[in-house]
Design a protein that fits this description.
Blueprint: H1 21-26, H2 28-39, E1 42-47, E2 50-55, H3 58-67, E3 72-73, H4 78-85, H5 94-104, H6 110-114, H7 117-136, E4 141-142, H8 143-160, H9 166-188, H10 201-224, H11 232-238, H12 250-281, H13 283-297, H14 304-307, H15 311-323, E5 330-334, E6 338-340, E7 343-345, E8 350-353, H16 355-358, H17 400-417, E9 418-422, E10 430-431, E11 437-438, E12 443-448, E13 458-461, E14 467-470
Helix pairs in contact: 4-9, 7-8, 7-17, 8-9, 8-12, 9-10, 10-12, 12-13, 12-15, 12-17, 13-15
Bound molecules: protoporphyrin IX containing FE.
Length: about 475
Amino acid sequence: MMVNGTPQHTRRPRPYGLRVLPRLAKNPPEFFLETLHERGDLVELNLGPARLLLVHHPDHVRHVLQENWRTYGKGSMWVAIRKLVGNGLLGSEGQHWLQQRRLMQPAFHRQKLAALASTMTTTIAAMLDDWNSAARADKPVEVAQAMADLTMQIIVRTMFGASIDSAETRDLGQAFARALRLMNVRMWTFFLPDSIPLPGDRAFREAINHIDSAVYRFITQRRQNPTTENDLLNLLLEARDEETGAHMTDQQVRDEVFTIFLAGHETTATVMSWVWYVLDQYPDVQRRLHAELDSVLVGRLPTLESLSRLNYTRMLIEETMRFYPPSWMIPRSVEADDTIGALPVKKGTTVLISPYVVHRHPDFWENPATFDPERFAAGQNVPRHAYIPFGEGPRLCIGNNFAMMEMQLILAMVAQAFRLSLQPGINIRPTTMPVLRPNQPLHMNLQVRTRPVSNATWLMATETGEYQLVPEHERIDTDRD
Ligand code: HEM
């Protein structure tokens, strides 16, 4: 793998003007990539009042997100998001962010997350149950929606554990998805003041009130009757500032619950949608995946221990995130005059880092347009700061271990049970609203894979919460509504 790449442009690059708007509007990530090839590592866009600086070189990425991160704030895009998540981690800044990050970091430690694996597994198994019925009836599944529903259920259940039943999980998931859709309207009309009402404002408030009342109820119940549950809510309630000993207030916990819902489901759902798509497109990759799953798991459910041996499964997810990073653009606002490389940057400039471009930088990735999970095999040098699906520096995604564990479990369990193939005539390309996702529904046919264990046709939860393989005639519905 080539790792050279001294940043180009020590002189001020020629900026793009308004004439590029049609190219930008047509396909933003591809246009950004073209700017790398046309003008180099630092590219200015002067689009009327909007002055943007595109930062493509890994050294500059490190400067903005890591070394000099205090100079680069989150900017105005987060105003609309704060209406939903309040002062939660994702959109907050300064001292409040630092304090919250310190409080929450331990909850996302790999060891704490291990306790959430069984909740994830149970939720995935319930979906597989539905897919089994669909497969028998020869019915296709729309996998993008199925992944969105699944990851929403996982995040709600890992948050509230046994306190929440299936009906309420679904209800909360739907209310949150509604609030998110309505929030996007405000996000893309950010130039309009709040005093101008928009259709959907009332429905947005109603959805938030609905979720608020449930979340505050769970918080109150848990404070009154503490449990030893290993769910995220308990981890948030137990979190304590090392210096002051202070816990979070109810309002802070509520904001972080909303933040985790927001940050933690659409991203993973999108990666998983792309994974099913690439498996359909690259039969050799699919064959290698199935071979690994069959030899490591031998028909059993994945555990944390077996996940560590499912190397190809991990490599496939990592390459999918290189190719299709859901957070395809990381914006920052310059808070004080600075210099990137040799380029002076004025306070108020908007800096855009696009993982989509950085992941395809030809000085750092060999044949970047080729999909190849081998890039992430053990012993390969993944170029530093050139692979940033979870961001970088102090604001690195706090849920990256959660997301990797969840995606590996979903991929292992689903691919163990089914082969998915895209229905003919569907042409997929990426679209960017709000994450980099397939531009249309992914209707896929399901084919049940032969299981390596001869008489076992299903995985079923036992009373102790463990799983075992049972013959079909002994299967009873355990985890259904
Ligand atoms: C494939 C899945 C995911 C991707 C690609 C992803 C990507 C990202 C990125 C790029 C950032 C940094 C944004 C910035 O610097 O402006 C971020 C931040 C964050 N993510 Fe994720 N994320 C994923 C899953 C999750 C999950 C599962 C959770 C929670 C369970 C989560 C919670 C957060 C939070 C709270 C932040 C804000 C951290 C801070 O500012 O201190 N993410 N994520």
